[in-house]
Amino acid sequence: MNISRVKHFKVFQSKPLVLSVKSAIVLGALFIMYFKLETLPSFLMYMHTSTFFMMLLFSVLNWHLEVLKWKALVKTMRNISYSEALKQSLAGHTTAIVTPNKLGEYGAKAYFYKNDNPKKIMGLNFIANAHQLLATLFFGSFGLYYYLQQHAQLPFHSQSVIVFYGAFIFLGSVFILKTKSGKKFLYHFREIGLKTHLLTALYAHIRYIVFSTQFFLILNSFEPEIAYLQVAPVIWCMYLIASFIPTFSIIDFAIKGSVALLLFSSFPVEEFSIISSALLMWAFNFGIPAFLGMYFISRARPYKRTSI
Fold first, then answer.
1. Dihedral angle over CA of 258, 241, 103, 274, nearest 10
2. Is the dihedral of CA 295, 14, 181, 188 positive or negative?
3. HSE (CB half, 13 Å, CA atoms) of 68?
4. Which has the closest alpha carbon to 240: 212, 268, 220, 210?
5. 254 CB contacts (<8 Å, ≥6 apart)?
6. Which among 258, 203, 261 has a CA at the least distance from the CA of 69?
7. How many Å separate Cα 157 from the centre of its chain?
8. What pLDDT was estimated at residue 103?
9. What angle do CA 207, 108, 39 make, to 5 degrees?
10. Which residues are 100's β-sheet partners?
11. Can you list the alpha helix ranges (DSSP code H) found in the chain?
12. pLDDT of residue 190
């Protein structure tokens, strides 16, 4: 491999700097955990024990699918074990929660491959996130269309969905075909292969179903009278809208909670139930994995260079 590939990652070569960055990430994550999770016991009091363990099971399944997705993509570059994919996914997640729009995830995962091909790892991580966004767009489009059909009093109608997606596809196509960054993305997208893309998309869509269903189950533990088919489109709509709001992962629950409050305003659902559900989702799928990821960050070591 040409060493020039990694010359832009000299920041990784300074051991004191790397140690400082690792320490800052761990301390930042601990700070977030303390202030976010100290209120968790009061919300868990309203949750049945069986529901609590079901939530843990859903979170494990959610992250299992994320790890499989990452492992499938990295396989196009080198074979890694499930435990290695788990370590990289959790380390990237912990870094992501202390950076805007999860940008730290790219650097954290690239660090494992600083002697290999960090730029390609960043590209693979972008594609992993792109597939998850496509799953959000797929389900969210149905949710948004249904919501607009049921709430015609809003200042926009179902036709707005078609216009929005048409503009989104057009602008996305222009970006990919006409810009340098877009052309690079298209090159890496084609390089991966159709089979890997289909497998990654499958994991992303199943994962979406898992965590959106998990949100319903938590909400249902507070509001037993609500039905899945009644609120599932609203949950999909919530994730769609929240995905387009630039934010830090540390306030993800606040963004989704605020969007959910707006969307559920015409439903007989208490505000406490919505905010509690958003915070518990953050705790199960962001907080606990970030806590585990701190260990892997502290022990992160880059791979030796390969011939790729």
1. 30
2. negative
3. 16
4. 212
5. 278
6. 203
7. 29
8. 83
9. 60
10. 248
11. 15-37, 40-44, 49-74, 82-96, 104-111, 118-150, 159-178, 180-192, 194-222, 228-243, 252-263, 271-282, 288-298
12. 74
Q: How far apart, in Å, do the first and last CA atoms of the chain sit? A: 6
Of 126, 252, 143, nearest to 200 by C-alpha is 126
Q: How far apart are CA 229 and CA 136, in angstroms?
A: 18
Which residue in the block uniquely carries the two structure tokens 């690792």?
Answer: 22
CB 248 within 8 A of CB 99: yes
- How far apart CA 293 and CA 91 sit, in angstroms, is 5
Residue with tokens 């507070």: 222
Give, for all 308 residues of the chain, the pLDDT tens digit.
343 444 444 545 555 554 455 445 544 544 554 455 555 555 555 566 777 788 899 999 999 999 999 999 999 888 999 999 999 999 988 888 877 778 888 888 888 888 778 888 888 998 999 899 999 999 998 888 888 777 655 545 556 656 666 676 667 666 666 676 666 767 767 778 889 999 999 999 999 999 999 999 989 888 888 889 889 999 999 999 888 877 666 667 677 878 888 888 878 888 888 888 888 888 889 888 888 888 877 776 776 665 44
Measured CA to CA, the distance from residue 263 to residue 251 in angstroms comes to: 19
> How high is the pLDDT of residue 4?
43
The residue type found at 288 is I
Q: Of 170, 175, 166, which Cα lies nearest the Cα of 141?
A: 166
Spatial distance between the Cα atoms of 125 and 222, rounded to a whole number of angstroms: 36
